[in-house]
Design goal:
By secondary structure, the protein is of the alpha/beta class. Helix content is 59%, strand content 9%. The longest helix is centred in the last third of the chain and has 31 residues, at 309-339. The mean pLDDT is 91. The protein binds adenosine-5'-diphosphate and magnesium ion (MG). Residues 47-48, 153 line the site of magnesium ion.
Length: 420
């Protein structure tokens, strides 16, 4: 078993990247035949790593040029175009054309001074001309000697942000902006089909957001690809490779117990669990892990307040996409499931539909179902048994119970005490 270096930054590639051979093969074939992709998965599943690794390999082989753009902190279409321009500076032929297209602002600056390039491009791209400037940047990329794979990471976050105001409500202006931006992107994808392959990726689903805004048609030039959690064999392979690098003796039974506790094998959670176990044993001066060690580390480290750091991200993403009312409903539904062994029962959902009507003074019960759709789409809950839902991840379920379960009264008991 070849060793695997431990992950040290946000995303991994090269000798820190494990497996995903199937997905790399699919994405490579799509790049070759001009199929655009919408890659979705819950956060920490390894989307950024997968795309970075694909781009790294394609570039190394020399048949493609690659541009990776992170849209997580971008707020407008104009800024998205700026970022595409900034990241195109590594594509030499295209960059020469972009430079001459922006000669008035880019004259005389060093192409690798990224902050400077960004400031200058911002000065040249504004709400009135981003479309035309974006066309010019993409035309420059399309004219490159080699075809270009252009990855736009966290695009749904940008779309969601453009769409909604501070109260997380969809505004007419936001809808217009998103409509314009996605029409533009679609046109780029169509006009340069053989020269620019697009990979959009995001940890909140684009479809549910576009559905909320009635703009669903915009996603249809992109072939979806859902990045799944690892299966047990892959996770065990990753754990064995990490153990090998760290000189840790990790018997199969202990690895299997790690997988059983996590239930959903999100690569980041597998890595975190390994890290905690490795550190715990180092502190004890040991290099052999038992099933009991796995249990102790799970309870004392993974479920500790420090271990729950990732939970904040899950919560803020939900707030971002659902808004305050929807978030309140999601919080209740997830906690309801967490205190009930991870299962959200049908009777409870019905009571929430009823309650939501009271909260919002409307007789429109749809929001609970919208919330459930988002929770399912984003990988929190999965259909279970007869019309019920269950937490997909054992770790998330345990985190949720630890943080929100203690003072929670299930809806059936609340409804019962009101009736009494
Ligand atoms: N293929 C992989 N091999 C090894 N570790 C991975 C892999 N994919 C993801 N990870 C782990 O998950 C973490 C988060 O990955 P990232 O690509 O940032 O996920 P996402 O973009 O989906 O949020 C990485 O830092 C790494 O620890
Ligand atoms: Mg990412």
């Amino acid at each position: 078993m070849p060793g695997l270096k431990k992950a040290e930054s946000n995303w991994v590639d090269g000798d820190r990247f494990f497996d995903r051979d199937g997905e790399l093969g699919v994405l490579r074939a799509r790049a070759e035949n001009g199929t655009h992709t919408l890659l979705t998965a819950q956060r920490r599943m390894g989307k950024t790593s997968l795309v970075r690794e694909l781009l790294r390999r394609l570039k190394e082989e020399g048949r493609f040029e690659t541009v990776f753009v992170d849209l997580e902190d971008v707020r407008t279409a104009a800024d998205a175009v700026v970022e595409i321009g900034v990241e195109s500076r590594h594509v030499h032929g295209a960059w020469d054309r972009i430079r001459s297209g922006f000669a008035n602002v880019l004259r005389g600056i060093d192409e690798l001074a990224v902050a400077e390039v960004r400031v200058k491009l911002r000065a040249g791209i504004d709400p009135g001309n981003w479309r035309q400037k974006g066309d010019a940047v993409c035309a420059a990329l399309a004219k490159d000697e080699r075809p270009v794979v252009l990855a736009l990471d966290e695009l749904p976050i940008l779309v969601n942000r453009m769409l909604k105001d501070h109260h997380y409500r969809i505004t007419p202006a936001g809808k217009r902006d998103v409509d314009e931006f996605l029409s533009w992107l679609r046109k780029i994808g169509q006009d340069h089909r053989d020269r620019i392959g697009l990979i959009l990726s995001g940890s909140i689903g684009l479809e549910p957001i576009l559905h909320q805004a009635g703009l669903s048609a915009h996603a249809n030039i992109f072939s979806p690809l859902e990045l799944k959690p690892w299966d047990e064999k892959t996770a065990l392979g990753c754990l064995a490779a990490l153990a090998d690098t760290c000189g840790l003796d990790l018997p199969l039974a202990a690895g299997k117990e790690m997988c059983r506790r996590l239930r959903c094998l999100v690569p980041h959670h597998v890595q975190r669990f390994f890290d905690s176990l490795d550190e715990d044993l180092r502190l004890r001066g040991r290099n052999h892990a038992s099933v009991e060690d796995v249990e102790r580390v799970y309870t004392d480290e993974m479920l500790s307040v420090r271990g729950q750091a990732d939970l904040d991200h899950y919560e803020s993403r939900l707030k971002l996409i659902l808004g305050p009312d929807g978030y309140r409903a999601a919080l209740a539904l997830l906690t309801e499931a967490a205190v009930n062994d991870g299962v959200l029962q049908r009777a409870a959902m019905d009571l929430y539909r009823e309650q939501f009507r009271i909260w919002t003074l409307s007789d429109h019960p749809a929001p609970i179902d919208d919330v459930l759709r988002v929770l399912e789409h984003d990988g929190y809950l999965e259909p279970w048994g007869d019309d019920e839902y269950r937490f997909v991840s054992g770790l998330l379920e345990d985190w949720w119970r630890a943080r929100h379960g203690r003072h929670f009264i299930p809806v059936a008991r609340r409804a019962g005490s009101q009736g009494a």
